[in-house]
Amino acid sequence: MSGERQLDRSEQRLETLLGYLPYFALGVSAVLACTVPIATARSLRSTLLLSAGALGWLVLRSVMDHRALDRGRPWAAGAHFAVQIALICQLVLSTPVFGFFAFSGYVHAIRYLKGRRRMAGIAVTTLPTALSQIGGALPVTPGLLGVYGVALCFNLVVVGVVITLGEVTERLSAQRKQANAALSQANERLAAMLAENAGLHAQLIGQAREAGVTDERQRMAREIHDTVAQGLAGIVTQLQAADQVREHGGTDLAHRRHLDNAARLARESLTDARRAVRALRPEPLEHAELPAAIGEVVDSWRELHNLPAQLTVTGTAVPLHPEVEVTLLRAAQEALNNAAKHAAATRVGLTLSYMEDVVTLDVRDDGAGFDPSALPDAAGRPAGENGGFGLTAMRQRVRRLAGTLEIESEPGGGTALSATVPAVAREAARG
């Protein structure tokens, strides 16, 4: 847009310059006429009067709206030009120095005449121009006529070349303006699409968060039922058994055994409750960015299982939306858990790749592998079955973010897992 405005300003400056050029040429010619010897004082006065008349005609042309005049009376521009050419011819005949002013005929023909009238006006202007170049009104001789013909042809050729270049430049300028306008419209559409895409991303994240909240509630309900509730039920049972031992005169050892069992169940239930609470918000993300958080998980897994595991980060790490980071962290945790628990892997490699519009987590192990076609569909098994986050829950998380989860494996050939999600910036969470 700045280039287009600069081009418009250049064209406006050129138009202004062409508007003042006839006045400048007339002034220069009049000054030269006063300094060049003329036959008589009457001739000088006559020349100056003609110059004043030409000046008045130029002013009349300037104060009139030539576009409105041309629309109302198409012949008006031609009539005005004819009067100007007549004045130019008379001035050139009086003294050839008005050949400078003769060039104003080209300017007016190009600016105010259209089509064939423009070409005719340009051709007519070459007559006084060539006459001034050979010295004005001299005695007619065959040699002078030949020189005049050469000057006339020369002016026609030069003016024709200049006009052709001007028309080419004008067409290129028009095409450039059209291209700039089309580019501006394309940029506006692109900006609108980017804004709409950002809005859709924010909406998608919101929907994923709502769905995630529902899933977390269901998982917590199953977790509490399977662990905490059962532990509390066991505690109540042990306490009731201890009371019965006391009421029926049982031994202190039996009474103490039931109390110890109740205490053990209470400790286990407390541990399960703490684990369920920690699962709501991943602890590694509390104090680190995603690469460091996954690295912490990998280090803990390596120390726990005494197996080699390595994390590689490619691209420029940027802060992502919390839902995106949680999804990738959960995917890493689940993949590592499966590698140790089910695949019996001896080596695991993770790659976190930051690309322009997506982030990909690749996890590879050399474990036992399995048949991916035997996996249940995303809707076939609820997330968190048996208290954990399985591959189905992982796929559901990724799909809620408009991402993809690809699993390649075969029995005895290890497993490769790739989770790809949109690289939604953390600012989207604030928007």
From TrEMBL:
Stored InterPro entries: HATPase_C_sf, HATPase_dom, His_kinase_dom, Sensor_HK_TwoCompSys, Sig_transdc_His_kin_sub3_dim/P, Sig_transdc_His_kinase_ChrS
GO cellular component: membrane
Keyword Metal-binding belongs to the record: no
Superkingdom: Bacteria
Keywords per UniProt: Coiled coil, Kinase, Membrane, Transferase, Transmembrane, Transmembrane helix, Two-component regulatory system
Transport is among the record's keywords: no
Protein name from the UniProt record: Sensor histidine kinase
Domain Histidine kinase: start-end pairs: 328-425
Coiled-coil zones: 169-203
GO terms of molecular function: phosphorelay sensor kinase activity; protein dimerization activity
Transmembrane spans: 20-40, 84-107, 119-140, 146-168
